[in-house]
Amino acid sequence: PEAQWVVVLGAGVNGTVPSQALRERLEAAQDYLARYPEAIAVLSGAQGDGEAITEAQCMYDWLTARGVDPARLRMETKATTTEENLRCSLDLIEAETGTRPAQIAVISGEYHLLRAELLARTGRPVVHARPRVLLPHAGAGGLRRLGRAPILGKL
């Protein structure tokens, strides 16, 4: 795969149901996991106001209901900001593997991806940013690449 680890940044949950923005991210994550059977997804997001469950749990439930193997999913339930999503997800990966990954893929909305790119200026792993929207003119995999950058130096 482009990256063995793909981090899916959370978005709003309506009770226990993903918002439109989160559903679009989940569809992109499902596509990535289908395309790269060795990839593992970190589902990152805490419980916000008006949400009955964490964003991570909502993503887990949605993906497993659509046939994604639970063994390929990790839940990160503490993060409430883009910076925390990335830092906590990398910490989770490091705790599992003993090392930070050389690269990760990130699935989110345009705003989060821009923030991830800005955070990426000072660190080590390479990020393959993935927008939540599939574009008809996109290249391989149906997803437009927004860029690669080192990420999370001080985090």
Gross geometry = globular
Nearest-angstrom radius of gyration? 14 Å
Helix-residue proportion: 25-40%
Q: What amount of the residues lies in strands? A: 15-25%
**Total beta-strand segments:** 8
Subunit organisation of the chains: single chain
Characterize the largest beta sheet: strand count, sense, and whether it forms a barrel: 6 strands, mixed
Order of SSEs: EEEHEHEHEHEE
N- to C-terminal separation? Answer: 25 Å
Look at the structure and give the mean pLDDT.
77
Ranges where pLDDT stays below 50 over 5 or more residues in a row are 129-155
Explain what this protein looks like in three dimensions.
- The chain is α/β, with parallel strands linked by helices.
- Strands 5-4-1-6-7-8 form a 6-stranded mixed β-sheet, sandwiched between helices. It has a two-stranded antiparallel ribbon with strand order 2-3.
- The longest helix has 16 residues, at 20-35.
- Helices cover 34% and strands 21% of the residues.
- The model is unreliable at 129-155 (pLDDT under 50).
- The chain is built from 4 helices and 8 strands, in the order βββαβαβαβαββ.
